[in-house]
Amino acid sequence: MDTNSCAKLLLTHENILILTHKNPDGDTAGSxxxxxxxxxxxxxxxxxxxxxxxxxxxxxxxxxxxAPADFRPRYVVSVDIADDxxxxxxxxxxxxxxxxxxxxxTHFAAESYIRGEKASCAEIVLExxxxxxxxxxxxxxxxxxxxxxxxxxxxxxxxTNAAAFEAAAELVRCGADVMTVNTVFFxxxxxxxxxxxxMIYNGLRFYxxxxxxxxxxxxxxxxxxxxxxxxxxxxxxxxxxxxxxVVNITVREKEDGSCRVSVRSTPEVDSSAICAVFGGGGHAMxxxxxxxxxxxxxxxxxxxVAEEVWK
Amino acid sequence: MDTNSCAKLLLTHENILILTHKNPDGDTAGSxxxxxxxxxxxxxxxxxxxxxxxxxxxxxxxxxxxAPADFRPRYVVSVDIADDxxxxxxxxxxxxxxxxxxxxxTHFAAESYIRGEKASCAEIVLExxxxxxxxxxxxxxxxxxxxxxxxxxxxxxxxTNAAAFEAAAELVRCGADVMTVNTVFFxxxxxxxxxxxxMIYNGLRFYxxxxxxxxxxxxxxxxxxxxxxxxxxxxxxxxxxxxxxVVNITVREKEDGSCRVSVRSTPEVDSSAICAVFGGGGHAMxxxxxxxxxxxxxxxxxxxVAEEVWK
Lengths: 311, 311
Fold this sequence. Notes:
Two copies of one chain form a homodimer. Chain A is 38% helix and 17% strand. The first copy, chain A, contains eleven helices and eleven strands. In chain A, the strands form two sheets. Chain A has a six-stranded mixed β-sheet with strand order 6-7-8-9-11-10, sandwiched between helices. The first copy, chain A, has a five-stranded parallel β-sheet with strand order 2-1-3-4-5, with helices on one face. The longest helix of chain A has 16 residues. Chain A is elongated. The termini of chain A are far apart. The mean pLDDT of chain A is 95. At the A-B interface, helix 6, helix 7 and helix 8 of A face helix 6, helix 7 and helix 8 of B.
């Protein structure tokens, strides 16, 4: 399937429901909402599945496309979903078309349009909309910019390639409100988050001449900061801001007395080998595990294992 | 003058000295070094003025191009310099050619090639190098990516336009080491800086239901954090990370007992009007002033004036 045939396929159907994945991020939400808007402009009835997990930053952009309770879909399209276990309840096994950029996609839908080389699903939907309608509305451009910028960490992640920058240029030309998106998604955080960051930075522990950095997040810190679930995004990245740190460990105390541990590293050290010691796993540069015990104890334990694995 | 005529002009000269501005940033340094490399590939002898103010992040990229003591220039080119008062000592009034993107450029040189619509000088030099040599080396691409990314705040500032994203795409295609630049210039900071940020976030004061945020940086905090001059970049931006804040004030205690005040705001409030009360000035969204007194006192004073001006 190519872009034009995928666009034509979409336009042969009516009453289209578009699915986003569990714990929806900017790419699934922005891409789905932009596609929904473009299909409507192409004369189709289309709605988003009303994903209840959508957060307060995305809802103002996407909530208006949530399907009403009486909508009866006749064609189901998933956007940015690699595996139908990531579906919201009720649509497992029922997708007619899957549009995705994850190379690991499990081809769960009747038909699939996968572009594994793309940094974001938004770039695929950009091409689809250009095929459906020739142009984008400024609102669609903004929705796709949310997808592109969040999936590339505002063009700082390793997946940021020339095509991602070109897509950004095109979205700016189409009128994307880049400044507002940057402010909402990359600059502004709640006062509670700032208080929490303050405590985390203040409590950083260093081992092996600063090459191992450990951040600790306790229940008491969350309480003192007044932090909510929304304030806890990407905490695992904070320890890695330290110059000289190679292995970055984040220990987050859970309510049941165990700790959730995230390990990030440069290619020099195998994060998954560190987490495997505790029955966890992941990738060479990002892995995780759960360890019983108090945060202080778990921190020292992990730092010790990191030193051993590094040898 | 257009790109090709500027490129030809450069190639008609020999023993070229390239100037960067005082307190050099990534754009002046990266653009100048990339131009120097390209002129050498074009058969010319070219060096950078050995700017002693160049910081530890830029030096590894640019230091190799610093002119030896016995170099006698016959043609002087300034890069990213808006006014020859921003020259390093000794070359005021001696520039033969000025290459710049500041609309405010004072046309101090014998000839000027100004492109005020460009977000960075790096984009101008990109076009010049393509005119001189057709292609860029990966090293030149990396140098220009330093200029482009730092002058656009890694594509988050308001000057980021479609052309800036297109230039980024081209630099990636030419082999720019985007990941290393992003890590060095946007992600990593010293442990001292993290300690200082922790203290600043912890000490934030809010007025008018959180719409005025005040950050205080005292000499004692700098001492406790072990912060050096290099650690103090963009402190004025930290208070603005708070959701809901409209006016962001940073009060930095100086060694002489006065305070340097930076005010940032959305278009709703005039920062320069706040600073004008204390004899300072600037722009509507970014202004500054110096106020006598202890940081605590100055903070309350500024918050009060901000409330008055906002009425």
